[in-house]
Amino acid sequence: MRLDCFIFLFITAIVLSSITLAQIFNAALISLSLTYAIALMDDFAFYMRSSTEVENLMVSPERVIAYGGLEVEASLETLPESKPPPNWPDKGNIIFNEICYSHSVDGPQVLSNISCLISSRSKVGIVGRTGAGKTSLISALFRLAEPTGGSIIIDGVNANALGLHDLRKNISIIPQDPVLFGGPIRYNLDPFQVYNDSDIWRALEQVQLKSVVEGLDDGLLSIITEGGSNFSVGQRQLFCLARALLRNNPILVLDEATANVDMKTDGIIQEVIREQFSECTVLTVAHRLNTVMDYDKIMVLDKGELVEYDEPHLLLCQSSSYLGQLVDQTGPINAKKLRDIALLNHRQKCVN
């Protein structure tokens, strides 16, 4: 539109100039000038289209240059001298030793001097307000970016010295947004074809999806659309849980896995974790406090720092407890329910 207006003004200026110069130029020369001016319209449009196309095409090399400047991840394979034992990790003992973490080299530090011991087979909840550093702690565990300080020791092995394949394949995670690929159900649960059908059916039964899959025409070969859009959010999360059951790693991480599911699915997930992962170390980034109040310990983060780490009931007994503040913010009725859960769990431990 702007180009058309410019050409209109250009031709108008030539016409008006021709009137004032009629005494100097003859009619043939003026007609020739107008003919060339009109022909320039197509040339202007061609050059504008060409420049726009070149500008659009330059986005591709610009992105290639930007990707080329990204920091490269650590080595995928572990050096021979740092190779962990074949059965590593066998206990699931985790030590955070003065961990500092930033999502990028020039980004702000989101974790500061996090130090704690997570005993093998323990269930630890990670809570805190938005931006406290809960998910960042999980990112540091998986080395999505390299820690800027400190170390993470898993069963006596420094995780920073391992290749990313050796580290990540030995820790199961169920993220907040379930990841499913376009393809058969069997491929989604066992992409490397390590397990037989009976193992897969057992895992589906444990997460209460066996009847759902049996009701499909092709069973395990039924197709999941990209992103799992032909299943509900809760069912997608349960498929991810079944995948973790198959892997049977000694460490399980749940990154707000129940934040987007209904209470029934939340209950199924919590029940499976208590029964099927009783021999595993479980780290749960909690959106709902009731999912972690019966855990062995709760880690409270605030502004990237570890402010509390102990048994839920013992933390709630402290007058100035950060956990107590979070519990009280849920309302008096729910707060009492959460405190009762923590107290009951404490008494059961004392009896055992």
UniProtKB/TrEMBL annotation:
Signal sequence extent: none
Source domain of life: Eukaryota
Subcellular location: Membrane
InterPro entries the UniProt entry points to: AAA+_ATPase (IPR003593), ABC_transporter-like_ATP-bd (IPR003439), ABC_transporter-like_CS (IPR017871), ABC_transporter_C-like (IPR050173), P-loop_NTPase (IPR027417)
SMART domains: AAA (SM00382)
ABC transporter domain mapped to chain residues: 94-328
Key words, A-Z: ATP-binding, Membrane, Nucleotide-binding, Transmembrane, Transmembrane helix, Transport
A GO molecular-function descriptor: ATPase-coupled transmembrane transporter activity
One GO term describing the cellular component: membrane
Matching Pfam families: ABC_tran
Membrane topology according to the record: Multi-pass membrane protein
Family listed: Belongs to the ABC transporter superfamily. ABCC family. Conjugate transporter (TC 3.A.1.208) subfamily.
UniProt name for this protein: ABC transporter domain-containing protein
